[in-house]
Amino acid sequence: MTRMPGFQPGLALCAALAFCFSPVPAAHAGDRPYLVLGSAALEDDAAAWSLGGRWLRSGAANALQLGLEYGFTRATSLELEWSAERPGGGERSEREAELELKHVFNDIARDGFGLGLSMSLGLDRARAEGGDDDAGATAGPRRARRGALVQLLGSMPLSQAQEGQAHANLGWQRRPFGGGQGFVALGLERPLQGRTWGFGEVVYQPGQHLLHAGIRHWLRRDRLALDVSVQRQQGEGGWRNGVVIGVVAYDL
After folding, report:
1. What is the mean pLDDT of the chain?
2. Is the pLDDT score of 11 beyond 80?
């Protein structure tokens, strides 16, 4: 990835994680700005819509994600997400649609913790090998590949004053190109100052790791939020640095 002058993803990541542990005044947290822990066991507002979008860059890859979520009750919600990714390096772009159903089993305010379950089905469409390239040969057909994701969700406040949250997800993923694999995701979020929150997450999956941290600033409290974060991923090609920028509107 081409870095911006003076921008060091590793230092920014450490700084954002440090902010999550600093003593700060309380504020109110909205929905989740995470990449994997977006399915956290937190109650949503009933009969309310939320709409969000974000741009991600990791190494030479770019992706755009759009999501629409509806909360049927405070414990049950449904989300539809569409994403388009261009891996870079001459590889072909991919598009994916995902439908997620989430349910929280207990009353978080009463019990002091939350347990839930998230189930997602995805459909990935990619250009077949030997198809058209950007320069123009004959286009190959797009192939649809299905995937599934199941997560057991856990969340709890960091203190009795509700100053921040800790999250832990245990999941299993069947990828569109075949094969299933488990993963563990851990995360923290804390108020920093005024309308600004800090957050961070760590994800472990055999052969793949993710470090992600940043800040969320409420442009309009509990209604409109801006997320800016950095990420560091390890995969088959080694470590890749990246950035994530997102905007989310709540209670539409």
Report:
1. 80
2. no
What is the CB neighbour count within 10 angstroms for residue 175? Answer: 15
Residue 47 CB partners (closer than 8 Å, separation 6+): 71, 72
Do 232 and 10 form a contact (C-beta atoms < 8 A)? yes
Higher-confidence residue of 131 and 89: namely 89
**Strand 208-220 with 165-174, pairing:** unpaired
200 or 18, which is more confident: 200
Paired residues of 181 in beta bridges: 173
Strand partners, 123: 97, 146
Distances (CA, A) of 250 to 38, 46, 78, 136: 15, 12, 14, 42
Whole-angstrom distance, CA of residue 149 vs CA of residue 109: 28
Query: Is residue 44's pLDDT more than 80?
Result: no
Q: What angle do CA 102, 106, 109 make, to 5 degrees?
A: 110
* pLDDT recorded at residue 90: 58
* HEC assignment per residue over the chain: CCCCCCCCHHHHHHHHHHHHCCCCCCCCCCCCCCCCCCCCCCCCCCCEEEEEEEEEEECCEEEEEEEEEEECCCCEEEEEEEEEEECCCCCCCEEEEEEEEEEECCCHHHHCCEEEEEEEEEEEEEECCCCCCCCCCCCCCEEEEEEEEEEEEEEEECCCCCCCEEEEEEEEEECCCCCEEEEEEEEEEEEEECCEEEEEEEEEECCEEEEEEEEEEEEECCCEEEEEEEEEEEECCEEEEEEEEEEEECCC
Structure confidence at residue 89 (pLDDT)? 59
